[in-house]
């Protein structure tokens, strides 16, 4: 819709009409012309400047050997025909370095999305608690986080918290499986046994597949059948010889063995982004709960439901339908925020691309690749959230 | 009195079994945290690291013999801040008195650590800020003059502050000036983009929409870095200072966000107004400038004030192009081996300053929202 005027009337004499049409097309042509001229000018000057330095704009450098090392990051390689994941080594190509960086970005992003959604929802509910202390603590947390820059939070978590953990040989061990030390945080992991038969593997995969499908099926009987099938498949795989096992880390003199390890950088950026994002998620959740009609609380209280029952069965299901678009925005911001890992040396996509650019002098190409990647990531996130949103709102139907 | 307190505790902390359980867990933990923090602040912390390095934190590596320029800028800034706060909320008299006393206290503390002249200057600029606040909030004419006066103030700061070289700017003052300049620059550009996105000319609409969407889905740090590397390629024979390149990056990035805010304001406007103006025979330009824009901007002023906070927090990212902002200045102090153990003192101070500024801006934006909502009713 145009703000300015109603549309130009096309009812005048033919000559007048022709004039208007011509003017309109000239307008369009002028704008497109200016835009094209700007882009051409931009391209020409950049090309000229690069030519003076003896550089040609091309993406060929991606296939050269990188010659850099990353503190973490995996690449896909082929052993015969079987794809395997192995740590990045300096003989890999620049493209593989960028992919390893992208992998690190995705690792932080996905973990942060899951953790901050859960934690943020809890804090958001905490802000509406009937307990004065909990309510005000949640409020204080949200205010502190939202009024300070994320960068200083990341730097603080890294230098003032994670690097102040006890050294590896004196590392504390909590709950049997979690070791926090200066050289990283060790979590229980999942170990894959080598002796498991293909039968148990395929049963397990079928079980997970059925459970995943059950999530997306609306029909109740089908859902039950899928759940049963999933349970049967997993049970079968346990009987045949379960291929997965819990792998607890054990503290040793020089760190820890076994389990999954989070490097200090990864720990710091994950902590910072989860805490930061949780504050925003909490505000979204609180806003959505506040926006629900008060009558719902009163009606369910009149029916004799407790506050926790009301929250779980009446409020939250409605809230999650409302907050999904806001969550999508939040997740996109969170993805962009991971680029701040460069401040503490976390090898995310932006950081790796910077290193590669420094090595090769390909700043422009590097930035273009990173920009396009972030664009695509944003699109993927909003597409996924739109899909979930459409499903959630179709089922409720209002 | 005791009974009242007990009743309050019962109602607010132990009203229901679940609340009681929560309280039993939360009270000891928070008491311990408060005790540990208070003990650290009052007993363990060595705050002299701050008094010794305050100059670096505030102005970075700005030459010592030119510091009067920085002081002038601080005075103008405090007047501008006072005017901004005065415009955004009607100040209670008590708050003004408290602020004036706080300014004097800060001046006295400063006169012990950095000299009596600086102490007097701090007191004076705090009082000037409060005075301008009071003046602006009283007079309608002052409100109308506010925008040009702010621009004039900004220009004065640039004029006085820049002779020693833009690359010597640093510290908190750099963050603040970057924030103010960017906030001013984004506004016209963002408004143009918003109108472009709503235009009936298809090509303009497509270009503006694409620009906004692209800027909104890439990180700020990437945009700043990209402008920084592209500008020397576009202007090979002139060297543009990093600060200006950084400002350009910030302005281009945040303009997309301003455009979205303004668009929401444009959409909130009843269509009948434009139609009525049309039927009066007003030109498109007059309609947009005199009728549409003032009302649309009025709706989004709180959002724009909130955006200033975003820009201030984002200003820490200029480390990527080598500028020494407030955070970077703090890290520079920690890089000195003499101060390496004082990491918590520095970071707590940085966080406290950011929090104070942030909380003030949030508060102002909230007051403004309530104030405007009352006016529109």
UniProtKB/TrEMBL annotation, chain A:
Keywords: Amino-acid transport, Cell membrane, Membrane, Transmembrane, Transmembrane helix, Transport. GO terms for cellular component: ATP-binding cassette (ABC) transporter complex. The keyword Acyltransferase does not apply. Pfam families: BPD_transp_1. It is a multi-pass membrane protein. The chain crosses the membrane at residues 25-44, 108-128, 148-166, 199-217, 224-246, 367-388. The keyword Transport applies. Residues 102-381 form the ABC transmembrane type-1 domain. It is found in: Cell inner membrane; Cell membrane. GO terms for biological process: amino acid transport. One of its GO terms (molecular function) is transmembrane transporter activity. Belongs to the binding-protein-dependent transport system permease family. HisMQ subfamily. This is ABC transporter permease subunit. It comes from Bradyrhizobium septentrionale.
Automatic annotation (TrEMBL), chain B:
CDD domains: TM_PBP2. The keyword Hydrolase does not apply. GO terms for molecular function: transmembrane transporter activity. SUPFAM superfamilies: MetI-like. The keyword Phosphoprotein does not apply. It is a multi-pass membrane protein. Keywords: Cell membrane, Membrane, Transmembrane, Transmembrane helix, Transport. The chain crosses the membrane at residues 20-38, 70-88, 95-114, 120-138, 145-166, 172-196, 217-236, 242-262, 299-323, 343-364. GO terms for cellular component: ATP-binding cassette (ABC) transporter complex. One of its GO terms (biological process) is amino acid transport. Pfam families: BPD_transp_1 (PF00528). PROSITE patterns: ABC_TM1. Residues 172-365 form the ABC transmembrane type-1 domain. Gene3D superfamilies: MetI-like. InterPro entries: AA_ABC_transptr_permease_3TM, ArtM/GltK/GlnP/TcyL/YhdX-like, MetI-like, MetI-like_sf. It is found in: Cell inner membrane; Cell membrane. NCBIfam families: HEQRo_perm_3TM. Belongs to the binding-protein-dependent transport system permease family. HisMQ subfamily. This is Amino acid ABC transporter permease. It comes from Bradyrhizobium septentrionale. The lineage of its organism: Bacteria, Pseudomonadati, Pseudomonadota, Alphaproteobacteria, Hyphomicrobiales.
């Amino acid at each position: 819709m145009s703000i300015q005027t109603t549309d130009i009337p096309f009812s005048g004499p033919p000559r007048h009409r022709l004039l208007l049409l011509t003017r309109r097309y000239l307008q369009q042509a002028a704008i497109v012309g200016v835009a094209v001229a700007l882009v051409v000018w931009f391209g020409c000057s950049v090309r000229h400047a690069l030519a003076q330095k003896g550089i040609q704009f091309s993406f060929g450098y991606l296939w050269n050997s990188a010659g850099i090392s990353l503190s973490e990051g995996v690449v896909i390689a082929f052993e015969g025909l079987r794809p395997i994941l192995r740590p990045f080594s300096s003989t890999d190509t620049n493209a593989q370095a960028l992919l390893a960086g992208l992998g690190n970005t995705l690792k932080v992003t996905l973990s942060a999305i899951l953790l901050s959604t859960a934690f943020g929802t809890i804090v958001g509910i905490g802000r509406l608690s009937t307990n004065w202390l909990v309510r005000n603590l949640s409020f204080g947390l949200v205010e502190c986080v939202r009024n300070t820059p994320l960068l200083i939070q990341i730097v603080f978590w890294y230098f003032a918290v994670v690097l102040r953990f006890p050294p590896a040989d004196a590392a504390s061990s909590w709950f049997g499986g979690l070791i926090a030390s200066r050289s990283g945080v060790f979590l229980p992991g999942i170990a894959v046994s080598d002796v498991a038969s293909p039968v148990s593997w395929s049963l397990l995969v079928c079980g997970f597949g059925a459970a995943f499908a059950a999530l997306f099926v609306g029909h109740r009987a089908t859902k039950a059948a899928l759940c049963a099938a999933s349970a049967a498949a997993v049970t079968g795989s346990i009987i045949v010889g379960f291929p997965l096992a819990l792998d607890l880390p054990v503290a040793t003199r020089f760190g820890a063995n076994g389990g999954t390890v989070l490097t200090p950088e990864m720990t710091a950026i994950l902590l910072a982004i989860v805490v930061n994002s949780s504050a925003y998620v909490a505000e979204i959740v609180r806003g959505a709960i506040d926006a629900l009609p008060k009558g719902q609380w009163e009606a369910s209280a009149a029916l004799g439901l407790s506050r926790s029952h009301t929250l779980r069965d009446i409020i939250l299901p409605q809230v999650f339908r409302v907050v999904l678009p806001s969550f999508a925005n939040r997740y996109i911001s969170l993805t962009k925020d991971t680029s701040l890992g460069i401040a503490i040396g976390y090898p995310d996509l932006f950081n790796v691309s910077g290193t590669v650019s420094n090595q090769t002098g390909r700043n422009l190409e590097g930035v273009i690749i990173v920009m396009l990647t972030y664009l695509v990531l944003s699109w993927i996130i909003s597409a996924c959230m739109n899909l979930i949103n459409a499903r959630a709102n179709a089922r409720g139907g209002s | 009195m005791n009974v009242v307190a007990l009743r309050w505790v019962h109602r607010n902390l132990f009203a229901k079994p679940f609340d009681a359980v929560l309280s039993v867990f939360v009270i000891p933990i928070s008491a311990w945290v408060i005790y540990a923090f208070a003990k650290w602040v009052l007993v363990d912390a060595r705050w002299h690291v701050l008094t010794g390095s305050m100059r670096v934190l505030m102005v970075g590596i700005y030459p010592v013999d030119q510091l009067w320029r920085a002081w002038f800028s601080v005075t103008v800034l405090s007047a501008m801040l006072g005017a901004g706060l005065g415009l955004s909320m009607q100040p209670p008299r008590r708050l003004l008195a408290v602020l004036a006393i706080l300014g004097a206290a800060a001046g006295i503390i400063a006169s012990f650590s950095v000299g009596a002249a600086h102490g007097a200057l701090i007191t004076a600029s705090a009082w000037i800020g409060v005075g301008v606040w009071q003046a602006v909030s009283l007079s309608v004419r002052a409100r109308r003059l506010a925008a040009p006066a702010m621009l004039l103030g900004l220009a004065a700061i640039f004029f006085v502050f820049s002779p020693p070289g833009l690359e010597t700017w640093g510290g908190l003052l750099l963050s603040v000036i970057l924030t103010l300049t960017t906030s001013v620059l984004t506004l016209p550009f963002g408004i143009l983009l918003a109108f472009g996105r709503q235009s009936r000319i298809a090509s303009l609409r497509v270009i503006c929409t694409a620009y906004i969407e692209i800027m909104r889905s890439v990180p700020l740090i990437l945009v700043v870095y990209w402008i920084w590397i592209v500008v020397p390629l576009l202007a090979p024979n002139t060297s543009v200072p990093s600060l200006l390149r950084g400002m350009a990056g910030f302005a281009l990035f945040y303009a997309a966000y301003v455009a979205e805010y303004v668009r929401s304001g444009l959409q909130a406007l009843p269509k009948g107004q434009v139609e009525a103006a049309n039927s009066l025979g007003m030109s498109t330009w007059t309609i947009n400038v005199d009728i549409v824009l003032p009302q649309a901007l009025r709706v989004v002023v709180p959002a724009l004030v909130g955006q200033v906070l975003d820009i201030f927090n984002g200003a820490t990212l200029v480390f990527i192009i080598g500028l020494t902002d407030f955070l970077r200045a703090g890290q520079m102090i920690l890089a000195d081996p003499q101060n390496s153990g004082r990491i918590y003192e520095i970071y707590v101070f940085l966080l406290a300053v950011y929090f104070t500024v942030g909380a003030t801006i949030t508060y102002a934006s909230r007051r403004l929202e309530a104030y405007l909502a009352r006016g529109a009713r």
